[in-house]
Batch of 2 targets.
Target 1
Amino acid sequence: MSAAPRPALAASTPTRALLVSAALAAVQTGIFLALLPVMAAAAPAAPPLYAVLASANTALPLLARIVTRAAGTATITAGITAIMIVAFSPIGLLSAIPLLTAGIVFDLVTWKGPVTTLRLTVGAAAVAVALFGISLAAFSPEHLTPFVLTATLAGRLIGESVVAVLVSTIARMLRRAGVGR
């Protein structure tokens, strides 16, 4: 008898990377739940502000990919975060879509090799554009104006740029402390 086949991503991801992803997902869940009241108020009132704030929800999946240096860990971290958010938040299922999209897009951009500054920048920009596209479905008709749409896209790009800088700084500090070697 042979064991059931394992998915290729799980089979190729080291246990240490999975544990780091789970730990970062737990922290990301806390960040998400802490920001939820502010984001809920900002979304209908000021979509560009919401776009900047919501970028915080992509930080730790991106950090997981950088720290673990394992392909697919942004998606794994986002998936674990989504599962926990579904358990703790009434809008959990809706939140899973942008969380998983961010992880998948970042992993696709940075699939092979280490995440360089250029790949981090391109990945963060790709995440911003993808999340802006998803957010269009939630816009009210009065917000579908060129000004609000442009400002919201700019908010996503600015927010993801800030996340990229913070994640890069945190990753460097963790490496200096001996984590992720």
Target 2
Amino acid sequence: MISKTTRTTKSDQYRGLLQQGSYSRSTEVAQVRLRPDEMADLRLVMQSLNLASVSDALREGLRLLSREAAELAASEEIRSFYQGATAPAPAGVLPATAEELAAGDEIEW
């Protein structure tokens, strides 16, 4: 019988935190000092996203930061797996040309 060892990675840990999506039995209070311009930006975001409170807005920001951290961890794992070599493209996908890469670099969000 072959035993399979399971290795917990950073992206697994972040993914687990994202999937929980519920509060624990106890909560903690966190404080943050915001400059007036940051608070004004936060209020605009709250209005745009229809968030009822500063706490809701900050929770949403933390959720997005957690997602970004999970994506970074996953990309580090992929880079580590391929040990510096370029990851293969899916079947049927051609590599990007220099012109396509340059056009992508110029795109602004």
